[in-house]
Amino acid sequence: MSRAPATEHWDLVVVGAGPAGSATALGALAEQPGLRVLLVDRSDFPRDKSCGDGIAPHVLDALAPVGAADVVDDWTPLRHLELAHGDVSVSGPMRREVHVVPRRVLDARLVERAVAAGAVLRTHRVTSLTSTGTPVVSGTVSADVVVGADGAHSVVRTTLLGKRRDPRAIAIRGYAPTTPEMAGRQVIRYGSRRQPSYAWAFDRGDGLANVGYGELLPGERTGDRAPSRRLLLEQLEELVPGAARTGDDWRGHHLPLSSWRWDQPDGPVLLAGDAAGLVNPMTGEGIYYAVATGIAAGRTAAQAVRAGRPHAAGARHRRVVRDLLGTHLRHTWAASRLAQSPRIVDAGIRAAGRERHAFDTLVELGLGDGRIDTRLAGGLLRALLRPPDPSPEPSTQTRGG
Ligand SMILES: Cc1cc2nc3c(=O)[nH]c(=O)nc-3n(C[C@H](O)[C@H](O)[C@H](O)COP(=O)(O)OP(=O)(O)OC[C@H]3O[C@@H](n4cnc5c(N)ncnc54)[C@H](O)[C@@H]3O)c2cc1C
User: N or C: which end of the chain has fewer CB within 10 A?
Assistant: First the structure.
């Protein structure tokens, strides 16, 4: 069967204008001002996205070189983190500030920056991708390079890699009035269901807190059913009393968790963010990976177009992302496997209460590009073997044990 020819051609087409897509456009246009970039999303902006809205400092580090680190301006930063599992908990200041910015605001600001840099934004739901030869999107738009940044249910990823059984979590979020207990902090409370399972309350600083609960989805082969919305909200209410009762604007979504190995096929179609299966399996954080891999994909795409070698882009993107995140992804995968044991979760929280280094390293593993080093491993081992410590370090506080 012959295919109808595409009716327009771009240097780069980016499918999806979430953080990964906007960052791709910003990366490409920083690398090659004047590149012809089409940014396509099925939604008009501003639009909401189910998320905890937690913006790690690494997101801003990644955005600074492309001139967009000010997207969190006029939102109050916070430093205080509380981690708890039952009556074992640690609470203390993180080394660096984080922000909690509604995605309705953050994503619209990122899109604005991408358009100001020269990208053309179009509202369109991509229905197909032809990836042999010059890639063609929805049968009509061709490009030297296409970047799939279309999120957890990516059409681009499915076309490229087929349907895969990668691990996924499901989470629901809402907004609730900030209580004194939540004020000025990020609260994470682990549950007792399939790990990772936890509830959170992240203070936005404007009288509302982002509250939610998520857990690992059962594998397809187990035959177990996915948790219902009601169950997710019951878990939230149990772990953060009052949050589900007082919250509204509920919205759920899947999280494609990263695993031991990250893959990207050769060719002119690249993947970034959730479409690349990049969500931290310990914490569900994905915005940093989305922005970092988006910028990398954009830069690689621009270099490949400039060199007249779009088909070399895939291999280069694979190398760049593995250099950037490969070791970290292996370490978070290992940490998430360990954290399936409630004893290890408790040991991690106790180690973080005893040693500042363990607290900081766990935060770095969960938010950015941290690794499990020998000091953290030693702290975990000691916490597993030693009885609970009644005298925590002054910088962090633990209770229970
Ligand atoms: C409940 C919940 C809480 C979370 N909390 C946090 C958190 O606190 N911090 C954190 O860092 N991460 C968090 N995450 C993860 C984070 O939301 C994602 O990792 C992040 O949104 C990934 O960005 P992205 O640009 O890859 O994908 P998305 O943000 O999903 O953007 C994809 C875009 O593609 C568009 N699109 C999809 N399909 C098509 C199509 N066919 N055609 C055109 N456009 C399309 C969508 O409209 C969307 O705008 C959370 C996730 C969930 C579900």
Answer: N
